[in-house]
Design goal:
- The chain is an alpha+beta fold.
- Among the domains are: about 1-125 and about 710-760, no CATH class; about 170-220 and about 300-455, Up-down Bundle (Four Helix Bundle (Hemerythrin (Met), subunit A)).
- The chain is built from 23 helices and 9 strands.
- The protein has helices at about 1-10, 15-60, 65, 80-90, 125-135, 140-155, 155-220, 225-260, 265-345, 370-395, 400-460, 475-480, 495-500, 520-530, 530-535, 540-550, 585-590, 595-620, 625-630, 635-655, 675-685, 690-705, 730-735; strands at about 75, 105-110, 115-120, 660-665, 675, 710-725, 740, 745, 750-760.
- The strands form 2 sheets. Strands 1, 2, 3, 6, 7, 8 and 9 form a 7-stranded antiparallel beta sheet that branches.
- A hairpin with a 2-residue loop joins strand 7 (about 740) and strand 8 (about 745).
- Helix 7 crosses helix 14.
- The longest helix has about 80 residues, at about 265-345.
- It is elongated and about 230 Å long.
- The relative contact order is 0.15.
Length: about 750
């Protein structure tokens, strides 16, 4: 019992100690949980305050830019920091007042509220994103109603593309056709020279060969040495006989002087003399014969030498004409092969069922079989070879026998016969071809003569700005946009935004339309619209950007357009395009970027005329005149269509620049019409250069709003430091040896937190 009492006395107060050991940590834990709850509350409060501060900063957006659907704020200076600081401070619980209790006494640390600009509206990426946000609900509907459907439903985009391809093929085929005919003309000219030469050579050589043959027959088998030897022998014999006769005459005279007794001797001498005279006469006859034979041989040699020289020269001349003929024929055959291949491609049926009737002209193009040209070429070669045979016969140094005369005459006659044969075969065809070409050339000149005055008149009346005086009122505005062209290195707003977006090397769209001549006008205008079929297929981001341009900015006919009831249309855009500094010319500047109003108007006017010309030409190509098709000249068909198209285009342009609507196509679209603004939409699509267009838009917006877009922020980051008083954590942290924890920097008995928030429009 005593032991139990002792044990009881020894454990007295243990429960209290145990309770203390349990309760103290429990109280510390509760205090810790309270401060953690306060920390979480303060953290959320600071986060909300920072977000509210950034949103409040963004709320101070520029109303001038908002009129364009663009949102940004100017944070230059301390304006943004003040708004941010006031908003953050107003959303914090603040320090606890004396004698009052607050669960959190969070306050803003001095000079800790800062906002930072991240992205500016000068960035093409940001600028484009805001445009797309502004236009994504409007542009698809407007575009479909105003442009896409008008071209697609009528099928005009396909027809224009086909007309453009026809123009390309027509020019290509015409070039090949003209090349072939030009080479054939050269070949025909060379062949006619050969024929003219044959007309002179054949009678000349025929006569000379007959004379040569006669002399040859006289000479026979004699040689020049033999004739000379025989002549000398005959002359010697004649001389000897004459000497003997002279001696006999002397003897007779002596006998006569001697007396009568010499009569018998004289008689004998006379008999001898008579015999010698007979022999002398025969010898003289032989001398004469051999002399004539020598003369004939000399004539033969001279004639043969002359013929050799003439034949060599004439053969060289014929060979020169033949080389010219063969070279022209070589090029003619190549051009003919290319032409036949090209015609074969264009004559293939088009399964679309929308083939232009003008393409029937390819069926009327005069084609020549290559075999015919090769036969003609071979015939001429054979003819010249025949004359070369004549030359060879004359130069072989053999006696001109009867057989040789026959061979040479046959070759000469063959030369003439072959030339005459091919002349008879080709004369009619070549004459008809040349006559047809002359008629076609005259018809093309006639069509050019009809179209040229229209194009000249168009260039004289090309669109220009109305100036009150000789001073351009827009010169200063364009200098701001594009820089001063008179000052080297001068940069305007446009170049500044290009460089900021690292697009200084971007190629500015330039109009390539050439309307100086009907040939250039037709090909150039159709090439301009050939891309329509591709750009009208799918809606892309650039459509929204283009619609932003024609909606927010001014253009030439703004204020002149009328609605269905004849009332003037007014723009309801907040950007008020009618009141902009560049009056009624901004969209034209966006497309062409000229430094003058007249330059931009002219470029738009030219391209608009070109589109109307292309449409009018396409309509004419659908129904060409039969006589034009029958001429077999694709270029003539195109020129005739260009003439009709130019007449229609000139009338359409007068209406378009007055703000009127004109039918898209008289034959294809019916009541579907387009106005000046619609054609600007087309040109924005056809000259799509995004970096250039966006930079020009930014330049115009700065000009109109006086807002530097590189100072206008669209993405803001705000940061702030706050602190509140800790209750229990400092003591606990000292016990565990810690000076802070995540998101909280403990200083004394206060917790300092830093919060950031990022927001964009």
């Amino acid at each position: 019992m005593r032991r139990l009492l002792k044990l009881w006395r020894e454990q007295s107060g243990a429960v209290s100690i145990y309770l203390i050991i349990i309760l103290v940590p429990l109280f510390l834990l509760c205090g810790l949980l309270i401060d953690v709850a306060r920390w979480k509350t303060a953290d959320k409060e600071a986060e909300n305050a920072v977000k509210s501060g950034v949103r409040s900063t963004l709320s101070a957006f520029s109303p001038e830019l908002a009129a364009y659907g663009l949102f940004s704020t100017d944070l230059t200076g301390s304006k943004g920091d003040e708004i941010f600081k006031q908003t953050v401070a107003g959303n914090l619980s603040g320090a606890a007042d004396s004698g009052q209790f607050r669960f959190i006494d969070q306050r803003l640390e001095d000079d800790s509220a800062k906002v930072t600009s991240i992205f500016a509206l000068s960035s093409h990426t940001i600028f484009k994103q805001q445009i797309l946000e502004e236009m994504k609900y409007r542009a698809p509907m407007i575009y479909a109603l105003e442009l896409t459907d008008k071209f697609k439903k009528t099928g005009l985009d396909v027809q224009l593309n086909q007309a453009s391809k026809f123009a390309e093929n027509a020019v290509k085929v015409e070039a090949l056709l003209e090349e072939r005919d030009r080479r054939l003309d050269e070949a025909w000219e060379a062949f006619q020279a050969i024929r003219q030469k044959s007309e002179v050579l054949h009678p000349h050589y025929d006569t000379q060969l007959r004379d040569l043959n006669t002399l040859s027959e006289k000479i026979g088998i004699h040689t020049l040495e033999n004739i000379r030897a025989s002549l000398q022998s005959a002359q010697a014999t004649l001389k000897a006989l004459n000497d003997q006769i002279k001696q006999i005459d002397g003897s007779i005279m002596s006998l006569i002087q001697g007396g009568i007794g010499a009569a018998d001797s004289i008689r004998q001498l006379n008999q001898t003399k008579n015999e010698l005279q007979r022999q002398a006469s025969e010898a003289a006859q032989k001398v004469t014969e051999f002399q004539q034979l020598l003369d004939d041989f000399t004539k033969y040699a001279a004639l043969l030498g002359l013929l050799k020289g003439e034949a060599a020269l004439d053969d060289a001349a014929l060979s020169k004409h033949k080389d010219a003929f063969l070279e022209a024929m070589k090029l003619a055959k190549k051009a003919n092969d290319d032409l036949n291949a090209e015609i074969s491609k264009n004559r293939q049926p088009n399964g679309s069922g929308q083939q232009l009737k003008a393409e029937d002209v390819f069926n009327f193009v005069h084609l020549i079989d290559r075999q015919e040209l090769e036969q003609w070429e071979a015939g001429v070669g054979t003819a010249i070879a025949q004359f070369s045979s004549v030359r060879v016969q004359l130069e072989d140094n053999l006696m001109f026998t009867k057989q040789k005369y026959s061979t040479t005459s046959t070759a000469l006659n063959g030369f003439k016969t072959k030339v005459d044969e091919w002349y008879a075969k080709q004369n009619k065809a070549q004459t008809e071809r040349q006559s047809k070409n002359k008629a076609t050339a005259a018809a093309k000149r006639e069509q050019r003569a009809k179209a040229q005055p229209i194009l000249d008149e168009f260039r004289r009346t090309i669109g220009s700005c109305s100036l009150v005086s000789n001073v351009d009122p827009y010169e200063e505005s364009y200098r701001k946009l594009q820089g001063d062209p008179k000052t080297a290195g001068s940069k305007g707003f446009y170049q500044t935004y290009l460089e900021m977006n690292q697009a200084a090397g971007a190629i500015s769209p330039v109009s390539t339309v050439n309307l100086k001549t009907p040939d250039q006008a037709g090909a150039s205008s159709l090439k301009l619209v050939s891309a329509l079929e591709g750009v009208l297929t799918d809606v892309r981001d650039e459509f929204y950007i283009d619609e932003f341009a024609v909606s927010k900015f001014s253009y030439r006919t703004l204020g002149l357009e009328k609605d269905a009831f004849g009332r003037p249309k007014t723009s309801k855009e907040l950007s008020n395009p009618a009141g902009h500094e560049l009056t009624n010319q901004e969209v034209e500047y966006l497309i062409y970027g000229s430094t003058t109003c007249s330059g931009n108007y002219s470029s738009a006017y030219v391209e608009m005329f070109a589109v109307r010309l292309a449409i009018g030409t396409t309509e004419a190509l659908l129904e060409p005149r039969n006589e034009v098709l029958a001429a077999g000249s694709p270029l003539l068909v195109l020129l005739a269509a260009v003439t009709e198209g130019a007449i229609r285009a000139q009338a359409d342009m007068m209406k378009l620049v007055q703000g009127e609507q004109v039918p898209l196509s008289q034959k294809l679209s019916g009541v579907i019409t387009l106005g000046y603004k619609d054609y600007l939409r087309l040109f924005l699509l056809l000259h799509s250069r995004e970096s250039v267009l966006l930079s020009r838009m930014q330049a115009l917006i700065e000009l109109n709003t006086k807002q530097k877009l590189y100072e206008m922020t669209t993405y803001v980051s705000g940061g702030v430091s706050t602190s509140y008083r800790l209750w229990f954590l400092p003591a606990v942290m000292k016990l565990v040896g810690k000076s802070g924890f995540s998101g909280c920097e403990v200083s004394g008995n206060r917790c300092r937190m830093t919060k950031t928030a990022d927001f964009t429009y």
